Fold:
Amino acid sequence: MPALAWLLLLADCAELPEPVYSCPLPAERHMLVAELFFGRNIKGRQPLTDAEWAEFAARTISPNFPEGFTAFDGEGQWRNPRTGQITGGGTKILLVAAKPGPDLSRRLSAVIDAYKAQFHQQSVGIITRDSCAAF
Structure:
């Protein structure tokens, strides 16, 4: 009987709500911030154009993040883990602040996977962090 009581106690602990995320300003809410890094160099052709990026954003990013996002240009470098070769070039940086939820991972993955497939990229960099935001 003590083992059953212990299991019931553990089951109750597993269903406790997440702790409330404390933000410093009253209007702010807990958000997940994701920064994604999309290389513009495409093997065998010219770099990704602004028109191609705009179409990708409209068809893929906007449907997954209709609440909004910010995209800007950057320069970066990356070491290919297979060859050790360092390459650099233009990068599109996507900044998304979204409410944490069960579908957020799927939406981020959809954008990453679509870019890799459409533009023949080995990877898309991503950094995520908890934050507070108000819009």
Summary: Residues 88 and 119 are 16 Å apart (CA to CA). The longest strand covers residues 86-98. The chain has a mean pLDDT of 87. Strands lie at 29-39, 70-79, 86-98, 125-133.
